[in-house]
Amino acid sequence: FPVENIRNFSIVAHVDHGKSTLADRLLELTGTIDKTKNNKQVLDKLQVERERGITVKAQTASLFYNCEGKQYLLNLIDTPGHVDFSYEVSRSLSACQGVLLVVDANEGIQAQTVANFFLAFEAQLSVIPVINKIDLKNADPERVENQIEKVFDIPSDECIKISAKLGTNVESVLQAIIERIPPPKVHRKNPLRALVFDSTFDQYRGVIANVALFDGVVSKGDKIVSAHTQKTYEVNEVGVLNPNEQPTHKLYAGQVGYLIAGMKDVTEAQIGDTLCLHKQPMEPLPGFKSAKPMVFAGMYPLDQSEYNNLKSAIEKLTLNDSSVTVHRDSSLALGAGWRLGFLGLLHMEVFNQRLEQEYNASVILTTPTVPYKAVLSSSKLIKARRAVQKNMIFIDQNRVMLKYLFPLNEIVVDFYDSLKSLSSGYASFDYEDAGYQTAELVKMDILLNGNTVEELVTVVHKDKAHSIGKAICERLKDSLPRQLFEIAIQAAIGSKIIARETVKAYRKNVLAKCYGGDITRKMKLLKRQAEGKKKLRKIGNVEVPKDAFIKVLKTQ
Ligand code: GTP
């Protein structure tokens, strides 16, 4: 393919404005996929994406399009819209020269429309505004055109008005891609430089790296070297994504595709790495800023015998999602596990769901926290040292001075949602590290009949401890099933109890319906009850369903 006939572009938008639907129509129009009623979010491959109706992972597809006798290769990269996943957006943009900025004709410009526009603008990409959902009864495309002109300084006549759902006017989007987005500036005669912008793990074929070629050519059989690790590999397969992998003999500069080169260890395919020919090593391409985790949670196997399975599942999944950081950790109550860092709460939930769905792993997640830095006065040194060994974040003392990033703790759980509803979805929200600040913090324990629930230990501001403690106790009361005995739920700071709720005694008698029944049926029911209990965590003598923790945390 001549470089001048290649266009690399992304679709960006606020959540639900129709990126995936537009991607489906573009795939159909170019004959990449058949036109059937079932083409719903073809690029959303993950089960969690289909279930939640959100895009988590950027996908790539190469489309072939004929226009005025010329054949064009259009490389499309789908991107997620939620703020938790904006690192995926900037990563995708590094392989593009232009974006389609999709805006809902009814809702108009929203928070992520603005954030995505500026990501594209800073990367100096061509921006094509696409006003979608013009078929809606309340659609007001003229109002949205004016917004776009006012906010982004893009003349309103550059807006393309479409209905991705019905396919109306989608052809003119393809025309605009060819006319308004420049071909990539690349050099095929130079030695190879390929940017790894994403990678996935396949059980049988190992690591599949998604690459954008900036210089040269790569063919099957080439010996390549990673600029990051200096390890060499032989290329086993190269190809384009259509959107499924389709092997080709070569990939040329300007193209986007995949490459398999016998990378078996998940840590070998670093995103942002540059691949060169072994014989002609080159200066690496500018990589990506690594994503900075903002929410930390402990993750432990439900049963310690599953430690190794969970370890390999986490390793594989982090290859697909390199923004998750992993450190080994251990807890007296929960055994060996990890402390994971996520970009936000949705990111954490999605990771957890993918572990369960794609790797069949059962895990316990502890309360998410933000990073704190503890500074201890020297007279507390001995006890403090013990605490640090146990856990880097929670200190086993009341009177310690902690340095922390105050607002972050306030925003990790529900700030984004409240902000969105308060501002009718208009306010833009993004976060970055602003350094550490001094604050009066206390460690709060949640106790069930006097035993600490490790999963729910939190660090809170002194002034908020009472109200947060009370809320957690109330919520825990709602999610704990009654048991044979009374359960006292308490929030405590050190030895001081600051809130209490009680769950009254009760027993679910599974044999109630079996009077006179035969003994084997009774045994069966008792066995089933015992199996059900395996999904429970025992804290002292109290049984806690695994999802009770998540329920308590989510509405916090
Ligand atoms: P994320 O992947 O979560 O960022 O969402 P998205 O931007 O990809 O949105 P998606 O394509 O999933 O569309 C969101 C909803 O809007 C779906 O229910 C679509 O059916 C609907 N939708 C998309 N395009 C149109 C359109 O042109 N008209 C109407 N009426 N609905 C549309």
Provide a brief overview of the structure:
This protein has 556 residues and is an alpha+beta fold.
The portion of residues forming beta strands comes to 25-35%
Task: Tell me the strand order in the biggest sheet.
Answer: 11-10-16-7-8-15-12-13
Distance between the termini: 54 Å
Number of strands: 30
Which cofactor or ligand species appear? guanosine-5'-triphosphate
- What is the chains' assembly state? single chain
Biggest sheet record: 8 strands, antiparallel
Residues in helix, %: 25-40%
Global geometry: globular
- The number of helical runs is 14
Q: Which regions have little confidence, pLDDT < 50, spanning 5+ residues?
A: 381-414, 425-432
Which structural category do the helix and sheet elements fall into? Answer: alpha+beta
Mean pLDDT level:
75
Gyration radius, rounded: 27 Å
What does this entry look like structurally?
It is found in: Mitochondrion inner membrane. The protein has 556 residues and is of the alpha+beta class. The protein contains 14 helices and 30 strands. An eight-stranded antiparallel beta sheet has the order 11-10-16-7-8-15-12-13, with helices on one face. A six-stranded mixed beta sheet has the order 2-3-1-4-5-6, with helices on both faces. Helix 7 packs across helix 8 and helix 12 (465-479) packs across helix 14. It is globular, with a radius of gyration of 27 Å. Mean pLDDT is 75; it is low at 381-414 and 425-432. Bound molecules: guanosine-5'-triphosphate (GTP). Residues 13, 15-21, 41, 53-55, 80-81, 132-133, 135-136, 163-165 line the site of guanosine-5'-triphosphate.
